Amino acid sequence: MAQESLSKYAEKQNVTETLAQVRCKAGKNDDIHKQLISIATANIFLCSMAFLGNAIILVALRKESSLHPPSKLLYRCLATTDLCVGLISEPSSVAYWLSFVSEDWNLCKLGLGAYFIAGHTLCSVSLLTMTAISVDRLLALVLGLRYKQIVTLKRTCGVIAIFWILSMAAGVAYFVDYRISVSYGYTLIPLCLITATFSYTKIFHRLHRSRNEVQILVPQQPGQPLPLNMALYRKAVYSALWVQVSFVCCSLPYSIVAVVVPYDRLSSNDFILLSCAESLVYLNSSLNPLLYCWKINEVRQAVKDTLRQTLRCLWV
């Protein structure tokens, strides 16, 4: 029985090893080295933008006090995953692509493993968090006065912790069998998109019916709930929707390419196509800080104050 279990485990490891061989072999063509260098250079710029932009957003959100704490925590979680993309996932991909130029087989396998694990983990957390934001906006509309009592900071922390644990488990499954991580993604993506679509559809349906009759309670200070008009609630909903749409637009090409391109027969052209699609996914982490500043007035003002203070400190 023990030998059978060891045999199955070895077989699964061989599957992951085969993936590394196929992916690393596909990039060994000298004809695509220039394209790989261009893709790597573009991603170095993008990862710098993602890291700096989301670092500023995290500082700004820490200072911002007008947003409801659970909602602010969800945005901080999203900004954290985008920052980690610029700090871990994207540099791993750059090392992976440049390993073909330097013809370093060990660096290729190491970069592929790091990019695969970090990519699946962080994308999963981002998708789950954006879905939670859509549900949070729906609960704010449906629950009304009870929203503050039910959607608490402690419960939101628990939900985010579950997101990270579940996503990390799916990413680490790469060491056992990469197909576990892929299957998890194929299951998670439709579920999250269906949930988010349902939430926003329900929100806009109720907004259309109620117009300006419904008031949402968002606490300005502990123990002092302040009723806001529906115009402010609509802004919050549209802000969250823009972030969701941006993620879908950046991730959809990769999802299509990943389904169409065969993993076991990856040509050099397929490899370049897949790399470009992956770069588009990374672009989303650089776009999100811009969307926060554009669509959320409180965050935009907090970012301006943060940048002013930083410039003052640099000039002193």
What can you tell me about this protein's structure?
A two-stranded antiparallel sheet has the order 1-2. By secondary structure, the chain is mainly alpha-helical. It has 10 helices and 2 strands. The protein is globular. A hairpin with a 2-residue loop joins β1 (216-221) and β2.
What's the arrangement of secondary structure elements?
Blueprint lengths: L1 H25 L6 H31 L5 H34 L2 H39 L3 H4 L2 H20 L5 H33 L5 E6 L2 E5 L1 H31 L7 H28 L1 H19 L1
Antiparallel strand pairs: 1-2
Helix pairs in contact: 1-4, 2-3, 2-9, 2-10, 3-4, 3-6, 3-9, 4-6, 4-7, 4-8, 7-8, 8-9, 9-10
What's this, in brief?
With 316 residues, the protein is mainly alpha-helical.
Shape: globular
SSE run: HHHHHHHEEHHH
SS strand fraction? under 5%
Mean pLDDT: 82
The description of the largest β-sheet is:
2 strands, antiparallel
Structural class: mainly alpha
Radius of gyration: 22 Å
The main sheet orders its strands as 1-2
- Count the DSSP helices: 10
What gap, in angstroms, lies between the N and C termini?
Answer: 71 Å
Which ranges are low-confidence, i.e. pLDDT below 50, for 5 or more consecutive residues?
A: 1-13, 214-229
Fraction of residues in helices? over 70%
The total of beta strands comes to 2
